[in-house]
Amino acid sequence: MILTRAIGLTLLLLLGMLSPSNAAEADLRAIIAKFATASNFSATEAVVRELAATGDTAVERPLGALAEGDLYVRKADSLVFIGKAAGGSVELLDPLSGEKSGDAAKSEITKIKVNNTLRRAVRDALGTLTLGAKDPAARIAAADTMFKTPDATNIEPLDAAIASETVASVKALLEQARAASVLVSDRPEADKLAAVALIGGRGDRNALSLLTAVEANSEGAVKDAATAAIANINSTLALWDAGQNIWYGISLGSVLLLAAIGLAITFGVMGVINMAHGEMVMLGAYTTFVVQEVIRNSFPGLFDWSLVIALPLAFSVAALVGLVIERGVIRFLYGRPLETLLATWGVSLILQQAVRTIFGPTNQEVGNPSWMSGSFYIGQLAVTWNRLWILVFALGVFAVLLYVMKRTPWGLQMRAVTANRRMAASMGIRTPWVDALTFALGSGIAGIAGVALSQIDNVSPNLGRGYIIDSFMVVVFGGVGNLWGTLVGAFSLGIVNKFLEPYAGAVLGKIVVLVLIILFIQKRPRGLFALKGRSVEA
Amino acid sequence: MPKSNTILYLDGVSVSFDGFRAINNLSLVLDKGEMRAIIGPNGAGKTTMMDIVTGKTRPDAGEVYFDGQVDLTKHDEAEIAMMGIGRKFQKPTVFESHTIEDNLMLALKGPRSIFPALFHRRSAAEARQIDDILGIIRLGDKRDELAANLSHGQKQWLEIGMLLAQDPKLLLVDEPVAGMTDAETEETARLLRDIARDHSVIVVEHDMHFVRELGVKVTCLHEGSVLSEGSLDFVSADERVVEVYLGR
Amino acid sequence: MITGRFFAAGADRRIAITIFILLAIAIIVPLLNLAVSPTSAFYVPSYVVALTGKYLCYALLALALDLVWGYCGILSLGHGAFFALGGYAMGMYLMRQIGSRGVYGNPLLPDFMVFLNYGELPWFWYGFDQFWFAAIMVLAVPGLLAFVFGWFAFRSRVTGVYLSIITQAMTYALLLAFFRNDMGFGGNNGLTDFKDILGYNVQADATRSALFAASAVTLALAVFVTWAIVGSKYGKLLMAVRDAESRTRFLGWRAENVKLFAFTVSAVMAGIAGALYVPQVGIINPGEFEPSNSIEVVVWAAVGGRGTIVGPIIGALVVNAGKSWFTGVLPAFWLFALGGLFVAVTLFLPKGIVGMWDSWRGNARALRAASITNPINGEAGTDPAVPPPPKIVRSAARTPGDWSASGPEPQPAE
């Protein structure tokens, strides 16, 4: 019983959804045909209103064409088309479907004339139309447009839309749009004051610019109310700005963390100065590029998975190169940090030039998968998806690394070798292998950092150069040999940098940060979370 | 306790590294002209005590006075060295790429600023002093050798020679006979007794034969404070010293 | 004993020869360029004069770096900054000399300032129309920066790689600063289009020869000064700080002041090198602050042999000649070669060309000297009071060319 009723209801609903478009199309064509007989502007306007009254979104196309002056009547049969000039002739399109239905010489057709009144009527009609659209997003967009271009004539359609609106959030937007329109109308002061209050409550930049205009164009109580609302919005916006800066700072911090975290292993734990660290990041980014190229050419459907596929590959490539560097160069230089610095600098030059030779010196195109594109708002806070994912990813890498270091046998061996190489060796730990694998781990992490950074930075042979000094600053600032120090160091440097930027500009802000770190190292040569004690003195 | 007539006065000194108390309420007094031997197990705080006296480590609490009136916690290594405290490291530390003569020249008492050093010319008096010290440490025939080429024991002596050149009032000597043969050990003991005639000396050593040869008052440190103090016989008879250090 | 004196004499002779060669080419090369007809086999073309003049400036820079790195163990990765600052001071003088001959014809403001709508000359450009003032600034600006930077760094005992990294950060910060247009140093494009120096056309052959001679003489002077510093008691102290810093402190020396003096002197030398370089190449731009430039200087010193006076000069000449050859013949391979050089020198040639030469000759001499030193040891053994050391244990872990941050420092452990 219940089942049959449910099926019946569903069928009804389906019918309800299907029928209007079918039935309406003929009606719409009938109304559109009236354009051909409308002899003056007011007659045309009547047709426009009639079309709008149908509430069918299909009329957007002919109305839009009308406003643009692209609506024509064929003299031969008085049919209405959308015309597109193509060379000497005009291409005729069906006014509803937009499909091509023939060509005509300019002499065979007449343009339906429009003036400004008519254009406004069309715009209002379109606004009202989308206000009744089924898709809430379309209604929101319409409300937004109306908010930004307030007009007294919008009030009535908005009232109607508000009355029939069921979604609370959309309703609020519609009311704000209505308030904006009220402010430019000649409604009584009380209405306007209410409108100011409503818009003031919105508290964003659009509200601010609207109210600024109101403040300039009105007087008396409305002006005062607007002034008060502006002050209010400004203080709210300052808070949001601070929030936005913190978010930018966190985002920069996550980038720094990604770039520095591998270094925290090789430099912080092993004490090896790897100037080629940035190049490991670059190799990771180029691995991503190659993976995307292969996917584009052979498996286009997998594009959204390209980063996931690139991660293990980038890790392997960078780790392998790291292993070769450790076995080939660094292991001969343990205990001689300055020499290690120079040798790895040489390696970095070679890697850069190799990539330049293979891929060319220019930037390579690395695309964002769909789940990493776009942005969303939290209040006034703009958050882009790629930045958010990179933050999540950086924290994830950090957590995994922390786990490896603290909870796995390998991590234990790594720390043992760091603490006392000879003792570790005599307890049966193969120290050369631990060295090599630790270095490979640090390099591999730089590689996967490259995958993430390819999403927000130019992929060029110089990619790594930009990160190496910053990464060292993070590790040194946070305290060598301390992963948590690196985390805190990365985020605090990121946030300080972004907070300085509005006052000092991007470049000067960066210089100030560098100088601050240099001064900080003077004060605490072993970083924020330094190990204290006799043994680290020498 | 009166500080006058003491060369070194430590009272209630404590220092800890990351929660580990290396020195714990240590009190130690050295009279002018006295030589003292300090023994104790590893980790007893012997080297840390020297770090505190020479200004390398700042104590968390306590008083450290030199010569009865100078508060050593307010000065750094170079100042303390200039006041007249010389130190020999546990691991012999000499300037390996210099000759033995140059090592001594850099240690010789005199002005310690840059420009005098830049325009320094060796005077006859200095040459004589260096000759004397080379005689004492028996390295006269190697004066132009690089210090890197000396044996371990010879480096110990060179370092002691550098201390002498510095002409300090107080010498802190950390394990001077480590790695020496028995004959060298005896020789070093004789050398230190000589030095003690007109200097105050603190010697840290594990070698009980050597300590006995010195024949001076002994302080035994344990876990950062004084465990026992007195003649070697007294200290080595102390049950607690036997327990933690000498063994049964 | 004899070998020690002989080595000292050998080293002194080497310095004398170097100074003599430098003074000789200061006279001969300009003569061969100006007085000999271009068709003659002995003629030195002008571009060779300019090129070698540039190399001599690099050699001076490498020598300056070696004073702190080779003799004091401070691996500065920011010496390019001092070089560039000296260069900018000279460049500002040369800019002011252009006067109204610039593209915009402004008698007071350099072209880039007119272009960037400067109303008046920034205060820090005052005085640079006078050569003496610019010359003082060439010395003072790098010297002061080094003094202040070193004062902070050495006093708080920042050593080893930490010091290297913050010197690199220093030059990086200056790079960013000088790239800014509103710094008043010409931004991206730097200073260029010079016309006169001391009233003579910078492009003229005679001026180029004079600049070459000035570079050679300055380098000779720097060799002498470095030799005097290194040979003095202070120089020995400098090396003592390099090998065992805390030992010097416990002897009462202020290691930070020792380092600070060398660092400042070295920065001034680098500044002079930059000032001589700029009129010869005709441009100074922020690119000179690139951290990679400073690191390249390190490899010159390493190739030639750090801790020697002649080494860095040879290194700078050899590497730059190689660079010129490569960029002419195989431009794509220069960075491979340079990178390989970094690796090869640190792995196989830690003491550089001069160091290898010395130890090769030293070995040969030591073999011959062995028969002389043996009897002395025997004599010492006869002294009943001093038994011969049972076994001479040489410290195998460290070679003289290997002064690392963690090496010689006493490691107190109970």
TrEMBL record, chain A:
Q: Which GO terms describe its biological process?
A: amino acid transport
InterPro entries linked: ABC_transp_permease, ABC_UrtB_bac, BCAA_transport_permease
Q: Is the keyword Lipid biosynthesis in the record?
A: no
Q: Where in the cell is it found?
A: Cell membrane
CDD domains documented for this protein: TM_PBP1_LivH_like
What GO cellular component is one of the record's annotations?
A: plasma membrane
Q: Tell me the keywords, alphabetical order.
A: Amino-acid transport, Cell membrane, Membrane, Signal, Transmembrane, Transmembrane helix, Transport
Q: How does it sit in the membrane?
A: Multi-pass membrane protein
Transmembrane domains' residue ranges: 246-273, 305-325, 388-405, 436-456, 468-491, 503-521
The answer to whether keyword Transmembrane helix applies is: yes
**Which terms in the Gene Ontology molecular function aspect does this entry carry?**
transmembrane transporter activity
User: Which residues belong to the signal peptide in this entry?
Assistant: 1-23
Q: Which family does the similarity line name?
A: Belongs to the binding-protein-dependent transport system permease family. LivHM subfamily.
**Name of this chain's protein:** Urea ABC transporter permease
From TrEMBL, chain B:
- Write the record's keywords in alphabetical order, separated by commas: ATP-binding, Nucleotide-binding, Transport
Q: Could you give a GO molecular-function term held by this entry?
A: ATP binding
Give a Gene Ontology cellular component term annotated to this protein: plasma membrane
Q: Gene3D superfamilies annotated for this entry?
A: P-loop containing nucleotide triphosphate hydrolases
One Pfam entry name:
ABC_tran
Q: Where is the ABC transporter domain?
A: 8-248
Is Lipid metabolism a UniProt keyword of this protein?
no
Kindly indicate whether the keyword Nucleotide-binding belongs to this entry: yes
Which named protein is this? Urea ABC transporter ATP-binding protein
Q: What is the lineage of its organism?
A: Bacteria, Pseudomonadati, Pseudomonadota, Alphaproteobacteria, Hyphomicrobiales
TrEMBL record, chain C:
Bilayer-crossing regions? 15-35, 42-62, 68-91, 103-125, 131-154, 161-179, 210-230, 258-278, 298-319, 326-349
Q: From the UniProt record, which GO molecular function terms apply? A: branched-chain amino acid transmembrane transporter activity
Print the keywords alphabetically.
Cell membrane, Membrane, Transmembrane, Transmembrane helix
Is Membrane tagged as a keyword?
yes
Residues of the region (Disordered) are 377-414
Q: Which organism is it from?
A: Mesorhizobium prunaredense
Q: Which InterPro entries match?
A: ABC_transp_permease, ABC_transptr_urea_perm_UrtC, LivM-like
What does UniProt give as GO cellular component?
plasma membrane
Protein topology in the membrane: Multi-pass membrane protein
Instruction: Please identify the protein, giving its name as recorded.
Output: Putative branched-chain amino acid ABC transporter (Permease protein)
Signal sequence coordinates: none
Q: Which NCBIfam families match?
A: urea_trans_UrtC (TIGR03408)
| Primary site of residence | membrane
Q: Where in the cell is it found?
A: Cell membrane
Q: Highest lineage ranks of the organism? A: Bacteria, Pseudomonadati, Pseudomonadota, Alphaproteobacteria, Hyphomicrobiales
Highest taxon listed in the record's lineage: Bacteria
